[in-house]
Write a structure and sequence with these properties.
The structure is a homotrimer. Chain A is α/β, with parallel strands linked by helices. The first copy, chain A, has eleven helices and 13 strands. In chain A, the strands form three sheets. In chain A, strands 7-6-5-8-9 form a five-stranded parallel β-sheet. In chain A, strands 2-1-3-4 form a four-stranded parallel β-sheet, with helices on both faces. A four-stranded antiparallel β-sheet of chain A has the order 10-11-12-13, with no helix packed on it. In chain A, α1 crosses α5, α1 crosses α10 and α5 packs across α10. Chains in contact: A-B, A-C, B-C. Chains A and B meet through α2 and α10 of A and β2 and α3 of B.
Chain lengths: ~350, ~350, ~350
Amino acid sequence: MRHLISPMDLSVQETEELLLLAERIMDAPKDFSHLCDGKKLATLFFEPSTRTRLSFEAAMLELGGQVLGFSSADSSSAAKGETVSDTARVVSCYADIIAMRHPIEGAAAAAAAKATVPVINAGDGGHHHPTQTLTDLLTIHRWKGGLRNLTVGLCGDLKYGRTVHSLIKAMCRYEGVRFLLVSPPELRVPDYIREDLTAGSFPFQEVERLEDAMDQVDILYMTRVQRERFASEADYLRLKDSYILDTAKMKLAKEDMIVLHPLPRVNEIAPQVDNDPRARYFEQALCGKYVRMALILKLLGLARPSLPEAAAPQPQIIPSLSCGNPKCITAVQPGLPHLFHPVEGNAHLCRCAYCDHTCGGK
Amino acid sequence: MRHLISPMDLSVQETEELLLLAERIMDAPKDFSHLCDGKKLATLFFEPSTRTRLSFEAAMLELGGQVLGFSSADSSSAAKGETVSDTARVVSCYADIIAMRHPIEGAAAAAAAKATVPVINAGDGGHHHPTQTLTDLLTIHRWKGGLRNLTVGLCGDLKYGRTVHSLIKAMCRYEGVRFLLVSPPELRVPDYIREDLTAGSFPFQEVERLEDAMDQVDILYMTRVQRERFASEADYLRLKDSYILDTAKMKLAKEDMIVLHPLPRVNEIAPQVDNDPRARYFEQALCGKYVRMALILKLLGLARPSLPEAAAPQPQIIPSLSCGNPKCITAVQPGLPHLFHPVEGNAHLCRCAYCDHTCGGK
Amino acid sequence: MRHLISPMDLSVQETEELLLLAERIMDAPKDFSHLCDGKKLATLFFEPSTRTRLSFEAAMLELGGQVLGFSSADSSSAAKGETVSDTARVVSCYADIIAMRHPIEGAAAAAAAKATVPVINAGDGGHHHPTQTLTDLLTIHRWKGGLRNLTVGLCGDLKYGRTVHSLIKAMCRYEGVRFLLVSPPELRVPDYIREDLTAGSFPFQEVERLEDAMDQVDILYMTRVQRERFASEADYLRLKDSYILDTAKMKLAKEDMIVLHPLPRVNEIAPQVDNDPRARYFEQALCGKYVRMALILKLLGLARPSLPEAAAPQPQIIPSLSCGNPKCITAVQPGLPHLFHPVEGNAHLCRCAYCDHTCGGK
């Protein structure tokens, strides 16, 4: 049985197969409308996320399946002190597949460890949100005809944006990809991402103003910049307009450029841009549904080629070592065994099997 | 594509066709039980309303369709600052039709402006609740055999009751209708309704005590009177019993009179009245389901005759004019264009395209 | 029409038929997967209970039916002051069967009195939770091959545990059953249960330490002991480990013993026990789904033999007598008629028809 906890759980080839399946569904949805007859998806949302939840539910319903679940922790057994592992084990009695969102890092991995049905991570705190990344990849694949040889502009808050980090990591698996990172100095990508890009010899450039990037990008991925994250009010006032995409800035862009946004937006894209055919963020929402349909089929073993069992080595308990990440599920639910993977190339470090935090100790 | 924002969006003929379709469904529900196979209704309830939501959901399920959505704003993206227009646009990717309830006036119109699927207004603050009005009309049509030549008694809080105002407006489109308005002086219908009735030469009478109206009405439409809305405690004590329908008052009524109530009731109808065959408020709840089934079929183009495109003129931006209603959606979501319709017969006034508030300024 | 309000509403024979039907469904679920096509279950949960609600919803979906409802009182009309009777009457227009959970004792009975479809009590405060009891019986029936000649160990908080009381009462209907009651002195079963056991000559023994019961029981029913319910901190510290089932204690038990738990658990069963084949609490959750499938079929008249109309005598109003239980639904919703059943063998007492509280007054 396979789960989807991180976007990197799928190999490049598996990702490609998934995207092709999603496009086949987009082109002929009726051929797929009964493949999940009699199947049930449980949407276990320990924190609200309407868009993601409705996208999963629409996906399952369009495959002929049914949906049950909850949309916030208030209506769940979590208040009674149950672990996510137990919840996932019990819900495995009621559903054929689980999509889970949880505010704590590593919660989806903890659920997968005990579930007897596939678990899809629909967001675990600041950690992973793999179906968003797959949605982004499908949108690019669909409207740019592939994932290679593209200049990807990412604009806004590149420091805290989980979505942005995952997309960079995912796009690095494709040849000829170049990044243009547009942000105020205080919201540049974290060092580890810059180091990864440098180490892998991926061409990238960091600029401060969106105007300076518009004419080069094939894809412009917009995100929100929150006022309170600027270093100073002066900086905010100087730069804020630069991070608002409007019709004037769109005039600078290539004719076949596409604009993406994970949504919801607040004011970082002017409503007038919606009418520009290059604005693809609503089609992106549609892609989110189709890629989830493909994913459900793959995880349930209802689409060829099947996903093979994950070859990942089993994580292990390391005597007297606990995960040091205070936001990790192991910090919140003490019953969980502390499990670790080795870190390649450094025998002294290991990586928490739930939240991926690197810990010393071997 | 047609939406339903106000009860008056449907012409008299369209309303008649809708009610006849609803009655056909009531008489042979199985003939309609697969017409929405593969279709999805999104119930976007930004404020809770169990009865209305369940009625919509039951309607869609009985047509063979499926349902997704949310039942309160807490579980929605609204908290993240998304406009209802964007929410409606995105949900159009997940569903074939939307039923939306929102606490702000004009929210449904704002949603319809961007949605790519039909939007049904399931209540927008104190503004419209068209499916309640259609429910009332179907109940009358079903149990009185038509909508003409009826004396309609309306009892309770006639000042603040949106339901009552809409029903009066809707019944005024039928010949031979007469109104008996039963309320304490401080809770009489608003002036604009009294003026409309006078202007249209619709016979009406205002009385203070329900006992004085019982023997004349063909339909008695009960609503709740909240204690805090009386002008004084003395008034409340003097009048409160007069607005409670009990078996004694039922003895004064015609044998073929029917009692309606939008529900939920608190104590304005004594439980003993439930056993009187003239009590039709629970059948009214049933009618609510059937009229919503008919409406869904009509808006999805699945029932003949189809609804033609709305002929209403496009609303326009009027330079430097904003809607003056502080409860209007344009006051809450600043990104929305301020759109207006002209007011017939007065070139100096216009009407907000969202909340219908009359504004000066031309 | 039959409802299920108390586990004792079903006769021994009806219970047996229900359990056999549930086992037939477990063995061949596909034979039952369309029996509820076109039917709808309403889950009216006035207080959250994820596990119970999802179990009901999964049950209805696996029968081919559909589900609507609400998962907490916040999203319901209760806030507007509607009685549960009216809610049940209206929801009868939208669904074919109702499962209701409510924090007030007797609420399910009040709903059943006005509903025009079968009502299943999914928990009414501290009063009844009959589908949990049926779940327990099915699990025992399935894994012990019957309900007779068994030694049932019940461990933990036996004073406040509604689940435990109902199970004892239910098991007393079968021959050769013996009870081992394991609890701290301050959390022993209430006197009325001890008296019932004595009066009926059911063999039972009360012990303080789980270790002393392990080798005798055929079934070990674990429940949680909350720290704040111990008489003193010293008592808690002395006894707490005794009520935690771990692998060491499992070594003392029979090879064919089974461990049950109503779930969610906190720490009263160590996670290592999950791997013991005698641990059956997750299969118990699965049984919960199947017994609810059987129950829905029985109450909808879709499974032979049908349940006959309940032969119970109609409850009556007794002039000037009100139920004395402050937690009874009649105390909270004043419109309800106060109805009573006679108490067998004592002409001076009667029993509230909603909450079963014994009241003087005849």
